[in-house]
């Protein structure tokens, strides 16, 4: 039978146990049976069973020893716990006693109770030190309950603040193992926030002190290391780092507002941020402007170097000087004509680079400026963009473009300046978009400046076009008329054999004018188009008016002049300027004086379109008729 511990359960009878073992062994029964009694086999079974009993005894003995050791260990642990609870209670009792004695000792006169006061003070400090040591050990063991007990006792001691300091210092150990100090801080505060309420009676005070400690030590050191290394050596990287660090710090502060930090946590966190960045923010805008100024100059110089172009001097205070002359409507001396070989000296890539740098500057300005200084700072950045983009690039290209405009007597002139105007206009639209997208949300004061800049841009275009571009266009018209118009056009030798609808000179002038009007419309937009075409149309009319007064007209020649003016009037419709069309309507009516019958001359002069004109002007036109003297037409004006 199997040897197990169950065979020895109470009540146990040894004789019965042996008898049962012998009976179950084949040939071992005392009364024989089916098999004869076999003493050797029974002896062998007893020996084997004795060996099994020895093994079972050893196994049970080992188990007994294990249970005895476990019992002893638990007894010791229980004894320690009892001692700890007893000692803890003695600490509370001792703390209560020493605290009361300390308060009483404050009232005792020093001269009589100096020794007593010293002993009480010594015991007070010893106990306080022991409590802090106990709190430190409990924190390291992670015993929240014990930490809470000790903190509650220390609450009435002067060393309570030191206990909080110990807690803050120890909870940061091992918390900053990664490279991201901001993420580590957020995780640490999240973990401590769950624990601090279980340990301290005023968790919001402890949490605020922890965050203050992190900001004034860990974060401030991190910011200083990042910024001080690049402040002098690499301004661009310094500004990028400052923007990134300030942005991440404010984002961290926003996360921390979810914790209970007292009544005015937003002001508290703002002061912590200011304590870290105040020295950097005070000089921010000066460094921003210094960087933009040098960066803008470098971008400009790199472009002109790529064109192998040495920038010309366009005078000091060019913009102010130009605006003053616009205001006074005086002539602008532009110097000799130069050949730019069709180069506009305007670069979309350069413009994109300048606008990109300015966009980053606006973003930094928005983030890093004090709200009260934001409009002023943003405006100073805007002025640098105006200086680099509008003055140093667009205005310079306009100056060069103007210098490249041929004189009014040039033959077959190419007006590259309108290409400059077209590109400048496109660039200004990019400038305008950034103004509305980036600057408008930051500053309203710049709106007036930008509007003034826009008006200046319009006036500048018109003013500059007045001086050479329109002069050149009119010069080309004069050249066509001078070379193509014949005196015999208006006094044909055979009055009965005139087969043309209008003269060759008229045809070529109209083709040229229509092409220039189309060019102006493609190059400009808005009020610029109307202003330039109005001036060009008025000059076009004046030229034709003066041109027609150089000839004398036969009856058929007068009819041909009327046909020419009708074609000029059709061309004037392309200007879409009512004034210009009205001028050509009047000129067309004046040309009727060249062909009207002498008896009807007075009636025509009193017509709707001519009645308000100076009679000397009417007389001058009538004098152009070849029959002026023979028909005694002058009597109608005497």
Automatic annotation (TrEMBL):
Residue ranges of every copy of the Exocyst complex component Sec10 N-terminal domain listed in the record: 39-90
Protein's gene: exoc5
Name of the molecule in the record: Exocyst complex component 5
Annotated source species: Takifugu rubripes
The Exocyst complex component Sec10-like alpha-helical bundle domain, residue ranges: 93-636
Family assignment from sequence similarity: Belongs to the SEC10 family.
Keyword field contains Transport: yes
GO biological process, one term: exocytosis
Coiled-coil region(s): 43-77
Domain of life: Eukaryota
Keywords: Coiled coil, Exocytosis, Transport
GO cellular component terms listed in the entry, alphabetical order: exocyst
